[in-house]
Design goal:
single chain; 307 residues; 11 helices; 10 strands; globular; G2P_N
């Protein structure tokens, strides 16, 4: 499930003599235009490499580096091999590198075109919901959720593992991108690469659990079959719920009130209660995706516990 990873290795953590600029720089394809006497910028396959005298920063998709594609998942049992291969290629002890970003993602084969599911995903508390370039994002400064058409993305990037058979499939990818600030806040410390494949899988399991729980926290919307009590209040409750899919109602209230406004606080409590009441009947599409996300989580969780 791990895709993109950012690693930083500080010179102070290396227990042998090494000149990052000279020795690591000699192992990568250097971008002359972006490099100078103070830093070297380049690449190793798909991995972007930034080198300064005191640190090396590595960014890229680990499955793409190891397999040539992220259409296939990199299992936890292969993580150590992927990190060790990268270590050998760069001549660095990357097991000791600190993770500054990590993406957990899964390709889910669905029954309908991926974009048609976006309307069923409503607001997520403390996140901004945006659709850009045919992808649905939930964003905040600590982490980001992303849903997109994996076949379309693979086709655009000429993925070598994209077969003619896959072109006819609907594959919706769900990713969560954890930034360094989130990782450090959640785990109360820096996480090193070696902890992803440690004997105790707690770090990896926590990342998967949060991947699932963040999806579960998204308010799912019943669009096609509106159902409400045939009263004015029932209609208002349904209309409020439908509007909440497009806009954060609580933020709208805040924008028209002053700090400490008791009437606004009371209104927010009433609105929150109404949004939580009468969930309605889920459409088959969202139930389908819910079931598949749950199944993916259980399969990966069980495979790790049974290693």
């Amino acid at each position: 499930m791990i895709d993109t990873i950012w690693l930083i290795l500080h010179h102070s953590t290396v227990n042998y003599k090494i000149d990052f600029m000279a020795e690591v720089g000699a192992k990568i394809n250097v971008d002359i235009k972006r490099s100078n006497e103070y830093r070297i910028v380049g690449s190793l396959q798909n991995m972007q490499i930034y080198i300064e005298p005191t640190f090396v920063l590595i960014q890229g998709s680990l499955p793409k580096y190891y397999y040539g594609s992220n259409l296939v998942s990199l299992p936890r049992t292969e993580l150590s091999n992927a990190i060790d291969k990268l270590s050998t290629d760069l001549g660095l002890p990357l097991r000791e590198a600190i993770i500054t970003r990590i993406d957990i993602g899964m390709n889910v084969e669905v029954d309908n075109p991926p974009r048609s599911y976006f309307s069923y995903f409503g607001i997520l508390k403390k996140f901004e919901r945006n659709i850009r370039r045919n992808s649905l994002y939930y964003e905040q400064k600590w982490c980001q959720l992303c849903f997109y058409d994996k076949v379309k993305e693979a086709k655009a990037h000429k993925d070598p593992l994209l077969t003619s058979e896959m072109l006819d499939k609907n594959i919706l990818r769900y990713e969560i991108r954890y930034k360094h600030s989130w990782l450090k806040h959640y785990f109360k410390r820096n996480i090193k690469a070696k902890e992803l494949f440690a004997k105790d899988p707690i770090v990896y399991l926590d990342l998967i659990a949060e991947w699932y729980l963040k999806y579960d926290d998204i308010i799912k919307i019943d669009i096609m079959k509106p159902k409400f009590e045939m009263t004015l209040m029932g209609l208002l409750r349904w209309e409020l719920k439908d509007r909440s899919r497009k806009q954060d109602i609580l933020k709208i209230i805040d924008s028209f009130s002053e700090k400490g406004d008791r009437k606004a606080a009371r209104l927010k409590r009433v609105v929150t209660k109404m949004l939580n009441e009468d969930k309605g009947i889920e459409e088959n599409m969202i139930r389908e995706f819910n079931d598949k996300i749950t199944e993916c989580t259980e399969v990966h969780w069980d495979s790790i516990l049974n290693e």
